[in-house]
Amino acid sequence: MQIRKPEPADFAAWSVLYAGYAGFYGVEQTEEMRARVWGWIHDPGHEVGALVAERAGQVLGLAHFRAFARPLAASTGGFLDDLFVDPGARGSGAAAALIAGVEAEGRRRGWTVIRWITAETNYRARGLYDQVATRTPWVTYDLKL
Known about the structure:
Layout lengths: L1 E3 L6 H14 L6 H11 L7 E7 L2 E13 L4 E11 L8 H16 L4 E2 L7 H10 L13
Parallel strand pairs: 4-5
Antiparallel strand pairs: 1-2, 2-3, 3-4
Helix pairs in contact: 1-2
């Protein structure tokens, strides 16, 4: 399993995976939206970074992340926004490898924490998350604008 930054040739595979991620969470996502995120990933001035998991020349999963300020801790953390592995590749170690890749990137950047959220009902992913990270007691709220 190789964890690396996505390359331009990965767009089609990444797009299928990202559409699958959106579908998993019931989020309507258009090709235009995916093209915008792909542009962000490849814009060195944009905050969003990405990694892909590849095995035998096939892109199996993706992770999107970004820095966030932690004023109370006077530090910077990393937020893992999206993590998705092709359903046929689940159990391959791709998700754990992607999290480890984001962790390595965070250490390289001097982040003090990697944080993410998931659906309460995402039991399979939570099984992995409970092994590699500490579940927090924080409740998340959205204020729609």
